[in-house]
Design brief:
With 300 residues, the protein is an alpha/beta fold. The protein has one domain: Rossmann fold. It contains 11 helices and 11 strands. The strands form 3 sheets. Strands 2-1-10-9-11 form a 5-stranded mixed beta sheet. Strands 4-3-5-6 form a 4-stranded parallel beta sheet, sandwiched between helices. Strands 7-8 form a two-stranded antiparallel sheet. α1 packs antiparallel against α2, α2 packs across α3 and α2 crosses α6. The radius of gyration is 19 Å and the shape is globular. The model has no long low-confidence stretch (mean pLDDT 90).
Length: 300
């Protein structure tokens, strides 16, 4: 089988190197702002905190027995933790498999977990009864997988803190601590909708995702001053690549838990977003909404 490996013109050889460089260039600058439209949970991470937290999360993955070339599944609505776990996977050369709480049936979730041979499942519960029931059913039907779940970011911090305590010196290091995991490993497996048959897994390497993100950043003329408003699901390619684009350029990701028609423009203004990406159905939906404050958006 022939594979075309994209040439690395990124200026770094690993994701940890990129995060380390950003932590030095943009130390106290906001890297990610997460906002939950239902609970109003708000979390902000600077680029220095992002490096530290991704390293902590990588130690969590390692403690669960996840190694290079292994896969792990993620089940949650848009959350800061998705990005942290995906980036942590890069540090050890493991692959993320995002699942969809809403559109994946229980059978669909099990199919993806088993097909990818995921070693662990990370779940952030939103406090909904049906989600709790789903996790219980997954526990019963996926006996050989480790399931880690939490309800809010504070709980997640406690989980990663336990596993990272013994590695605290390495986490604070201003050098590469996970070896030089290059960009050729598989970053993520995204599945098609499965309307014609079983969903098909699309295998994307870290290099291909980052080079795509670099192209987007150049096209959109992103700079460290840009603040990208993410409302589309992170288990789709659009939001995944745009988030990587902002990390490449040292901009700020504004991650919203879900799309809200009534709050869209208010949140854009609240977080001073400069860019966003939406689908035509959302654009049509927003035509009946009138912004109550001047918008900071430069481009949609």
């Amino acid at each position: 089988m022939l594979t075309n490996k994209p040439e690395n013109s990124l200026g770094f050889s690993s994701v940890e190197e990129l995060l380390l460089k950003n932590s030095q260039l943009f130390s106290n600058k906001e890297a990610i702002i997460y906002y939950n439209v239902d609970t109003e949970e708000t979390v902000k991470l600077t680029y220095s905190e992002l490096l530290k937290t991704v390293r902590q999360t990588a130690f969590l993955l390692s403690s669960l027995g996840i190694k290079e070339k292994d896969r792990f599944a993620i089940l949650m609505e848009n959350s800061l933790e998705i990005l942290l776990v995906e980036l942590a996977g890069c540090l050890i050369g493991a692959t993320a498999v995002p699942l969809d709480f809403k559109r994946d049936t229980l059978e669909g979730k099990i199919y993806k977990i088993r097909q990818t041979e995921a070693k662990a499942l990370f779940v952030k519960l939103a406090g909904k009864v049906e989600e709790n029931l789903e996790v219980e059913n997954l526990k019963k039907t996926t006996f050989d997988i480790k399931i880690v779940f939490w309800e809010n970011y504070s709980e997640f911090q406690k989980i990663i803190g336990k596993f990272a305590e013994a590695k605290s010196d390495l986490i604070k290091e201003k050098a590469i601590t996970f070896g030089n995991k290059d960009l050729s490993h598989v970053y993520i497996i995204l599945y098609t909708s499965g309307t014609t048959s079983h969903p098909k897994g699309v295998i994307l390497t870290t290099a291909s995702c980052l080079l795509n993100a670099q192209g987007i950043a150049l096209w959109q003329k992103f700079s460290p001053e840009d603040r990208f408003f993410v409302v589309l699901p992170l288990h789709h390619i659009n939001s995944t690549i745009f988030c990587l684009s902002l990390i490449l350029t040292g901009g700020t990701i504004i991650l919203i838990s879900r799309y809200s028609k009534s709050r869209f423009f208010n949140l854009v203004s609240k977080f001073k977003a400069t860019n966003t990406s939406i689908v035509p159905t959302i654009l049509h939906d927003l035509l009946s909404e009138e912004p109550k404050t001047p918008l900071t958006l430069k481009r949609i």
